[in-house]
């Protein structure tokens, strides 16, 4: 049976989104150049950051999307939790795996109201809307109440708060939960506190790094 990842409806949406995301580099460069002198992204309010990147796709790379599908397909998670929905590219890869698994749910969080609407529309167009709960708002609040323990976590929002989001999720992590953090090489400075946390076995994680795209860090809960 063909994988849901190659279903025509899924491929149509993903191809359109990946094509649109090719303009992200110049868009973000222009937006960052327009910041006030001395502005530091890590110190900006979350709502201001969401507005700043409201038109940016900020996607996972295609090969990272395929890896997400593969990991979710193999681990058969009952609950996937995602920080940083954006336009839904990574969400669709994960949901395609759940469709092929025959069960599972995704809870994903996005602060930008316009992106929430776009992601919901994209996931629905791909035929995967019944598997995805897109929560609008600050992930530090929206991800506190989950329908069960998280089996797989994707951190792909603002890098400098990865550790804060992980701490919110830790009460809902079980032994064996897989945590995937994106962009940890390109934004190593912004994710340093997160990396220090998951690389210390005393904190309950085993961690490995993958040199895909901007760098992935995979951790499992002890």
TrEMBL record:
One of its GO terms (molecular function) is O-methyltransferase activity. The keyword Transferase applies. It holds the Pfam family Methyltransf_24. Keywords: Methyltransferase, S-adenosyl-L-methionine, Transferase. This is Putative O-methyltransferase. One of its GO terms (biological process) is methylation. It comes from the Bacteria. PANTHER family: PUTATIVE (AFU_ORTHOLOGUE AFUA_6G01830)-RELATED.
